Amino acid sequence: MVPAPPRRSVPKDRFSALFSTLKTQTYHDPSSRGPGSHTIRSIAWNPTGHLIATGSADRTLRIWNPEKTQVKNSTELRGHTGGIERVAWNPVKEAELASVSSDGTCKFWDVRSKSCVETVQLGGEGLTISWAADGSVVMVGRKVSINSLRLRAPIPHCQSPEKRKD
User: Fold this and answer.
1) Looking at the DSSP assignment, which residues form a beta bridge with residue 63?
2) Main-chain dihedrals φ then ψ at residue 128, nearest 5 degrees
3) Are the C-beta atoms of 52 and 67 separated by less than 8 Å?
4) Which terminal residue of the chain has fewer beta carbons within 10 Å of its beta carbon, N or C?
């Protein structure tokens, strides 16, 4: 993966002008069942910026093409039995996604095949998730602990990740 270019600060006098030209684009899912049923809890870009993942309270994990905002152009990944709290892309593998849920699992997805390639039981609700910069470790935060999931091999060829409670 190519390193990000260095960031430059925006001068204070140009700050408001920078954002005045931005326009919003709405991604609408008609399967929403009323207010609060489809609350998006997490959103993340993949490392190349070509895909967006969203995780929702209603167990919906969806992969979006940012150029096409209609839900018919998105892909739903199914498998969680509770609300999805966080999603995170592997920083070095553009098609590998991890999600944590209130169902007590961390799932690893290959978005090319639209399948869950591994499920790890967390022993409680997963609330947050973060990949190591080299994609070899995933940290999952729960209410009372942090789980470190060290991957033995790159997904989708991996065996069960090792689970170590820190």
Assistant:
1) 53, 75
2) -150, 160
3) no
4) C
How does pLDDT run along the chain (166 residues), one tens digit per residue?
456 677 778 788 887 887 777 777 776 666 555 555 568 899 999 999 999 999 999 998 999 998 888 888 889 999 999 999 999 999 999 999 999 999 999 999 999 999 999 999 999 999 999 999 999 999 999 887 887 777 765 544 333 344 434 4
Q: Token pair of 107, please?
A: 């799932």
Amino acid 162 reads E
Choose among 84, 43, 86, 36: nearest CA to 66. 43
Total-model pTM: 0.74
The torsion angles phi and psi of 43, rounded to 5 degrees, stand at: -145, 140
d(C-alpha 151, C-alpha 161), whole Å: 5
Residue given tokens 């150029």 in the structure block: 67
**Cβ contact 74:64 at 8 Å:** yes
Q: What is the per-residue pLDDT for 29?
A: 61
Cα angle, residue 43 at apex, residues 46 and 126 outer, rounded to 5°: 105
Q: Which residues pair with 141 in a beta bridge?
A: 128, 146
- Rounded CA gap, 31 and 34, in Å? 9
